[in-house]
Amino acid sequence: MKIRILGILGGIALLLSAGSVYAGGRPPKPVKVFGTEGCSSINAPITFDGVNYATYDTCTGHDNFGNYSRQKIDAYLAIDPSTGAPITGPPCTLPDGTAGEVYPLEFAEFVNTYNFSDNQIFGYSFTGSACSGATGSFSISNEFTILGGTGRFTGATGTVTQKASVVVGYLYYFNQPFPPYNLHYGSFTTGTGWFAQATATETGTITP
């Protein structure tokens, strides 16, 4: 009887082992992704065309795969690289209800690092736009292609859309602060760059 029981247990262990090997060999399935994040942004010392400066975003968020920190750069065509003249985009309505202009995305890239680990995922985009105006309100929508990653995301593929809709996002913009701010207007007439905040959502499908 003891031999028979040991044989049964050994058979179960063998089946479990075989099952785990088979499961590990299955191709990964696409995962529908939804996430939210909060970010702060400054102008980056990077241009893709020598004219239009990129925005540098640092974010913390959460999606189906866990908590992450994100770094992203994105640039929009506000100036014609060939002439240096401002580009007048089509009209749009800002999240605060005022009028703005649409600026097409030139290029963007991002890296997510999950749970303080070696699990990273990369993406890039040429498809998207920003609606921006004079009140500090803005909205952004960009569609990213997943380029790959490290750890569990090695060889990852898919697409995700990142959207931000901010009523008052710019805390400082060149030498013209948007409220709320703690810098007396006109204190620095030669100020440059910007500092902003945003919350965003992310939806799409990723095959890890």
Explain what you see:
- By secondary structure, the chain is mainly beta.
- The chain has one domain.
- 12% of the residues lie in helices and 54% in strands.
- It has 1 helix and 10 strands.
- It has an 8-stranded antiparallel barrel.
- The protein starts with a helix and ends with a strand.
- Residues 1-23 have low confidence and may be disordered.
- Number of contiguous helices: 1
Helix content: 10-25%
Indicate the mean pLDDT.
Answer: 85
Distance between the termini: 47 Å
- Derived structural class: mainly beta
Radius of gyration: 24 Å
Secondary structure: elements and pairs:
Elements (H helix, E strand, L loop, with lengths): L1 H24 L5 E17 L5 E11 L2 E11 L14 E3 L5 E16 L4 E14 L5 E13 L6 E10 L3 E4 L20 E14 L1
Antiparallel strand pairs: 1-2, 1-10, 2-3, 3-5, 4-5, 5-6, 6-7, 7-8, 8-10, 9-10
